[in-house]
Design goal:
Layout: H1 2-12, H2 15-81, H3 83-94, H4 97-110, H5 119-129, E1 133-140, E2 145-150, E3 155-159, H6 167-173, E4 177-179, H7 183-189, E5 196-204, E6 210-219, E7 237-242, E8 247-250, H8 265-268, E9 274-275, E10 284-291, E11 296-303, H9 304-355, H10 370-407, H11 413-429, H12 433-450, H13 458-476, E12 480-485, H14 501-510, E13 519-528, E14 531-538, H15 545-556, H16 565-578, E15 583-589, E16 593-601
Parallel strand pairs: 12-13
Antiparallel strand pairs: 1-2, 1-6, 2-3, 4-5, 5-6, 7-8, 7-11, 9-10, 10-11, 13-14, 14-16, 15-16
Helix pairs in contact: 2-9, 10-16, 11-12, 12-13, 13-14
Membrane topology: Multi-pass membrane protein
Subcellular location: Cell membrane
Keywords: ATP-binding, Cell membrane, Kinase, Membrane, Nucleotide-binding, Phosphoprotein, Transferase, Transmembrane, Transmembrane helix, Two-component regulatory system
Length: about 600
């Protein structure tokens, strides 16, 4: 109920509130969507950047391990290059240490450079040159002897037959590659350090048959050297897993000897190298890098909240900027629309004043925008309306004055008609037929002037002129003649009452020459565009130039001076009713005559209004 009332009071009939509400909704939705897209795009960009940094660190770890793998393989290949050295190594792999010592003594008696071909010294030199090697082991598959070299220059040899050890099975099962140290081999070597990884290289005899295994244990912490460059360039942890899932390297040192919880190695061999979910359900990003050569997997794990902290500042900045944009997007249009609404309401208030009859009301808005132009147009309209009202009001007064003067309004029309009819009948009975005609014309003329018609047409005005001229044609007999010419189609055009008769009367009074027999007056009506033009032309006395100028000046004066009532009445009424383009124009030459042009608007009698 409350919402409905609010809608009716503030929105239903309030266009500006609707515009503001719609604009605010569109602005907020647009800014929120753009902000969301920006946050998503920047967040994903930062996530991708962090994952790329971690991927680069993982590739560095993979390169390091592959390099160590190739280095061990190179050490194994170097054994074959020195035939005596390889022979000694092969002898050590297949014979007890005591026999190897005797074998070496026999070689020493024969050769002078025995140290360079001594297997024990050769492997000890390798351990001295490679600080990350913890153990070197030689295994002979024929007699199952395991020779173990330690970093502290210790050496021991074990017989690992099937009767008392699982090592032969271990050596037979495991293949070339990188793996975690086997527990049975660890036990034999007494090596229980968890942070180790093993590299095994098969050793073949001269017949290219497998003669045993070359096994190296390396310190996993040495892999950290590969991450020195990326120490502060990546987030999360990096681990290296063997193909069986054993942890070979852990940058954080938490999972040695344990099962890595975030990913299954069997899955990682086939999955996309980048994933976003973990096996344990913990929210983390996972990078995976598979080494086909070494048979291991490098995994990078970054908690999502750790990466989220990288773009939390950017997200907060975007949210703050979006909130400010929403504030400005709502505030500024609201202020503009409220101001616009106030100005519009002011215009509505003034229109209501005018509706109630206050034509003096004006809108004070000097601005040049659309509302300012509407306000000025409204003011101009009121000025024109007031001027029109004044013209019509004055024209009504002029019309009534003209009618009163022309008819001598104090005479009772019915008394006048009856009296004139008695006189006419008397004249006819006495044989004065011309006097009867004159009285008849005068009677009809007075009746026409007094009669009120809703639509006064050109035909009515010309009939009044004809009756008036007929009086004087009878009076002057053969000394005066007149013509009235017009297109019958113009007969129903609306014209102002008594607009031609006073002009004709002016000629009768001031222009006719009674001593002449060729006095003529012509009235011609024509239409030019949207204007109706009447020309009254005579051959009378004419008007002197000075007097003509006085008449023209008198016609243009704003106030009457009492002179030239007839001509001024016609001219001023036409101007008041129709505007400055209408009225009368006088051309005259002394002793040649006068031409008076009257201009009306061309309007049909049924549609036109007149006074």
């Amino acid at each position: 109920m409350g919402i409905g009332r609010i809608y009716r009071n503030y929105f239903k009939n309030n266009m500006f509130m609707k515009i503001l509400l719609i604009f605010t909704f569109i602005a907020i939705v647009t800014i929120v969507i753009l902000s969301y897209l920006m946050i998503s795009s920047l967040s994903q960009s930062i996530v991708n950047k962090e994952l790329d940094n971690q991927k680069a660190a993982m590739e560095s770890v993979s390169r390091y391990i592959d390099n160590r793998h190739r280095a061990i393989e190179n050490i194994a290949r170097d054994m074959y290059r020195n035939e005596t050295l390889f022979s000694n190594i092969s002898f050590l792999m297949e014979n007890p240490y005591a026999e190897y010592v005797q074998h070496r003594m026999d070689q020493f008696n024969v050769q002078s450079n025995g140290d360079s071909t001594d297997a024990l010294q050769y492997f000890q030199n390798i351990m001295d040159e490679n600080g990350d090697i913890r153990n070197l082991m030689l295994y002979g598959s024929e007699h199952q002897y395991l020779s173990i070299f330690k970093s502290n220059k210790q050496f021991k040899q074990l017989s690992t037959n099937f009767a008392n050890s699982y090592i032969p099975e271990v050596m037979a099962m495991e293949t070339k590659g990188i793996a975690a140290p086997n527990v049975w081999v660890r036990k034999a070597a007494d090596q229980w350090d968890k942070e180790l990884y093993a590299i095994r290289v098969p050793i073949n005899n001269k017949q290219l048959k497998n003669a045993g295994q070359f096994l190296v244990y390396l310190d996993s912490n040495s892999i950290l050297n590969a991450l020195e460059t990326y120490k502060n360039g990546y987030k999360g942890s990096i681990v290296v897993l063997s193909s069986s899932g054993d942890v070979l390297f852990d940058s954080e040192g938490k999972y040695y000897g344990k099962t890595y919880p975030y990913v299954d190695v069997t899955d990682s061999l086939f999955d996309d190298p980048q994933a976003g979910l973990t096996r344990s359900g913990e929210s983390m990003y996972i990078n995976k890098l598979i080494s086909a050569e070494g048979g291991y997997v490098v995994i990078g794990a970054v908690p999502k909240n750790e990466i989220a902290s990288s773009y939390s500042g950017v997200r907060q900045t975007i949210i703050t900027i979006s909130a400010i944009c929403i504030l400005f997007a709502v505030l500024f249009p609201a202020l503009f629309i409220i101001n616009f609404a106030n100005r519009t309401n002011r215009i509505i208030k003034f229109t209501r004043k005018v509706k109630n009859g206050d034509f003096a009301a004006r809108i004070d808005d000097p601005r040049e925008d659309e509302l300012g132009q509407i306000s000025r147009s409204f003011n101009d309209m009121l000025d024109e309306l007031n001027a029109y009202i004044e013209r019509v009001y004055k024209a009504e007064i002029k019309q009534k004055q003209t009618e009163l003067v022309a008819l001598q309004a104090r005479i009772n029309p019915h008394f006048l008609y009856n009296t004139l009819e008695v006189i006419r009948m008397r004249a006819i009975s006495q044989g004065a037929k011309d006097v009867g005609e004159m009285i008849y014309s005068l009677s009809v003329l007075f009746k026409s002037l007094v009669q009120q018609k809703r639509n006064y047409t050109l035909k009515d005005e010309l009939e009044t002129c004809r009756l008036y001229l007929e009086l004087f044609r009878i009076r002057y007999k053969d000394r005066f003649d007149y013509t009235i010419t017009y297109d019958p189609e113009l007969a129903d055009k609306s014209v102002m009452k008594l607009s031609l008769q006073p002009i004709i009367e002016n000629y009768i009074i001031h222009g006719i020459r009674t001593e002449r027999y060729d006095n003529r007056l012509s009235v011609e009506i024509r239409e030019e565009g949207d204007m109706l033009i009447a020309e009254v032309c005579d051959n009378g006395k004419g008007i002197e130039p000075d007097r003509l100028n006085e008449i023209r000046e008198e016609l243009e004066k704003p106030e009457e001076s009492g002179k030239m009532f007839g001509l001024r009445s016609v001219h001023s009424r036409l101007r008041f009713l129709y505007g400055p383009a209408y009225g009368i124009e006088i051309q005259s030459r002394p002793d040649e005559g006068t031409v008076i042009t009257v201009r009306y608007p061309s309007r049909e009698g049924t549609d036109a209004e007149h006074v």
